[in-house]
Amino acid sequence: MRMLKRVALVATVAALGCGGGDDDDNGNPTGPGAGGATNGTFTVVVNGTTWAATGQVTVSRQSNNFIGIAGSGFAGNTAYSIVLGIGNATGPGTHNLNVFGGGDGSSVIVGSATTGYATSLQGGSGTLTITSLTSNRIVGTFSGTAVPSSGGAANLVMTSGQFDVTF
């Protein structure tokens, strides 16, 4: 559990560095990249409010078929950094987002100003489907429930997640 918290923290800090632009008085992005990700799209509905990555989305493809996608943006006035970790990403297919449910190490990690969340924690769930994977582009969908890494916060329900990014 301690290792997952460290991974969530590192991933969140890395994702925060990806965002671009300034905010208006309500916390909405206004600067460069305010219209969305500059290398594709990365969106999800979080607890009923649409989140979209702004600026550059970081995509990393490892030699062991692990792909990481990280972005930061807003759902209403709440800033979130979202990281998708996809294990065994060899082509189109569906991945379980909870290691307790027999997953392949795939997970969604979400960081906010107050806490971190993950689908890979006990009680989390979800699926991620890669619909297209080439040497420089990944396209897919995801949904699930991310649970907080510490008590007190409510779960995050993620629906209609989509990514179509180049790397």
Class inferred from helices and paired strands: mainly beta
Main beta sheet, described?
8 strands, antiparallel, barrel
Return Rg in Å.
15 Å
Structural domains: how many:
1
Number of DSSP helical runs: 1
Overall body shape: globular
Q: What is the overall pLDDT average? A: 82
Arrangement of strands in the largest sheet: 1-2-3-4-6-7-9-10
Counted beta strands: 10
* Helix-strand string: HEEEEEEEEEE
**Into which percentage range does the β-strand content fall?**
over 45%
Low-confidence stretches are 1-34
Can you give the helix content as a percent range?
A: under 10%
**Could you tell me how far the N terminus lies from the C terminus, measured between alpha carbons in angstroms?**
31 Å
Provide an overview of this structure.
This protein is mainly beta. It has one domain (2-166). The chain contains one helix and ten strands. An eight-stranded antiparallel barrel has the order 1-2-3-4-6-7-9-10. The longest helix has 15 residues, at 2-16. The relative contact order is 0.19. Mean pLDDT is 82; it is low at 1-34.
Please describe the topology of this protein.
Blueprint: H1 2-16, E1 40-46, E2 49-61, E3 67-75, E4 78-86, E5 93-96, E6 107-111, E7 116-118, E8 125-133, E9 137-148, E10 156-166
Antiparallel strand pairs: 1-2, 1-10, 2-3, 3-4, 4-6, 5-8, 6-7, 7-9, 8-9, 9-10
Which labels suit this protein?
single chain; 167 residues; mainly beta; 8-stranded antiparallel barrel; 1 helix; 9% helix; 49% strand
